[in-house]
Amino acid sequence: MKVLLLDAYNLIYRARSGYLKGDYPVVYNFFRGIRPLIEKFKPDIVYFALEGNPEFRKQLNDAYKSNRTNNDRSFHEQKAQIISIVRECFPFVTVRHPKLECDDTIATLVKQHCTTGDECTIISSDSDFYQLLNVFDNCHIYNPVQKKMIEKPDYDYVTWKALRGDPTDNIAGIPGCGDKTADKLVRSPELLSEYFSKDPIRQQIFERNVNLIRLVDFSDNIQEMERHDGVADFEQLYDILDDLDFQSMLKEKTWNKYVSTFKNLQGG
What we know:
By secondary structure, this protein is of the alpha/beta class. Helices cover 46% and strands 13% of the residues. The protein is built from 12 helices and 9 strands. The strands form 2 sheets. The chain has a 7-stranded mixed sheet, sandwiched between helices. Strands 7-8 form a two-stranded antiparallel ribbon.
């Protein structure tokens, strides 16, 4: 089975760029952009993964992701609208763990599917998913911004990132350890051990960062995941898009092509 896993917030934030006219440009860009992804990968099932509240990471580091703020009311209203439309009209499985991040939910689903032989493709520009390429040969990542598949790292991605930190998530690396130093250390267990032995604080920072960066597998508690199995309702979708005045999407030929793209999905 071919499984497609959508990093929902990543795709919604990406939809802020592109067509910017009208009252609902983010909604328009999102739904206009989702069809080509389904057409490209032709999955049997699509997961639409939402964010929870990463409590344990914030306990480890109260500055975790504190650098991310967006007070644009219009954007947040459109984000909520997109999520509602997906749940009501699309044959996607909407998933969320209330106390973990979207990344953890996707990682858990990848493990469940990949271990049974399914082919999984993650759609996201978030590099945290690269660690899954170190674990599962049948897991793939497509970056929708760069429009390319991501190659498997030839080193342990979690170790490398824990050494140099992750500014996008406000995770400070070991002082003085940049990309080049991290690259040398991750490829030599002897050098890494020697590096830690020179200053115990380095290992403390490293271990904290590993716990922040490594994705959580909650397979043993999968019942904690919220799940909504959507069913296609393209009549309702048509009416919604018509109300939003997305006329370019509703021309007969364009609309028929749009609808047919989703018909082979479970729930389509």
